[in-house]
Fold this protein.
Amino acid sequence: MFLGNDTLTVDNGRVKIDGYDVIDLAEKYGTPLYIISEEQIKINCEKYFNAFKNYKKEFILAYAYKANSNLAITKLLSKLGAGADVVSGGELYIAKLSNVDRDKIVFNGNCKTLEEIIMGVESEIRAFNVDSISELLMINDIAKKLGKVANVAFRVNPDIDPKTHPKISTGLKKSKFGLPTDLAIKAIKLANDLENVNFVGLHCHIGSQITDISPFIEETKKMMEFIVKLKEENIEVRDLNLGGGLGIPYEKDKKIPTVDDYANAIINTIYEFEDKVEIPNLILEPGRSIVGTAGYLITKVHHIKETSCKWVMVDAGMNDMLRPAMYDACHHIINAKVKDKKEVVSIAGGLCESSDIFGRDRELDEVEVGDILVIFDVGAYGISMANNYNARGRPRMILTSKKGTFIIREKETYADLISKDLVPPHLL
Ligand code: LLP
């Protein structure tokens, strides 16, 4: 019914997720409420495993923890066979708690700290995706002190325009991420001279929410050409990591490429180089396309006023879900109470910021105070970017599954809000 939301249904005027009535869930668990569909995550994950099942070498789906690192979700993905793309000590800690196979963990980021590198080396992860020569030297140093040899891959900046929002483009020449190929070659040669690092591969990530296949083809081609160039210098590449970035259908009337389209484009591009080099293992780091469409934000209408337009004021706000305020992101919204009449409304949160708006001039089933609205596709970069602005606690999150409905994150209380604040004695 809605593109990408296979487990949301509308039956006899009732909106259901994994078979559970949204209005009942709002009554039982309160609002605002994040709902994550276990079934949808399984569907999204399976699409990747199926699309790459015939890849000639090892295929690793290293789920990007930044999209949503809730422990129940990371445990579910680990059980489904996913690895982890982590970018902080915190995410590595969660990956280990989720029993992710260490050989499926990759560590990204352009500013890994000493403490984080120690954690990664001790955990014997599959690879650090190294972003600078100074980082390489630090990893070698730490590995030496710990009596280990750490696997390193290099993040390459391919200078590609992914045609997405500028704030989530990462592979252009001016980006802070990665090394251009000439510097990457120097870094690889240096790595080969160092004793406590082992060069294993290349990494690349051009951006997020990419809904056109051509930048991925260009990325894969550039990386394979680089692998050919390295072979001429007698350097073998075991792993090729192409990052994440496949977009999801936020707009419900616009078809976008499927995981199959994306997989075929990547696989065929790699195979074009088969007569020139050994095919590498393939690692991908999808985040949004695994959990994005599995998440909904359920919010209650508290007030309505008519000024320049009809304003619908809801109890979720930009602290709970930042994407519209930060990127002008468009998330589909419906009224969970299906009615005969439709109307055009603007939906706003209650924070003291003009950008705290979930949607302007949207056509919804007629809205009344007390109605429950459903904001779509917030499973990725929703709760993971939530914050306490305006001293608002982050909301509760539940998982809907065939086994029932479960709270997977408690809502934050007033006491939680000040739990890290300290008052010096003279102010007590
Ligand atoms: N790998 C690397 C190195 C990344 O930087 C990212 C995302 C991913 C993988 C996962 O990309 P995905 O498959 O989710 O597109 N907060 C923004 C998105 C920032 C993405 C940052 N990096 C948003 O809400 O749109």
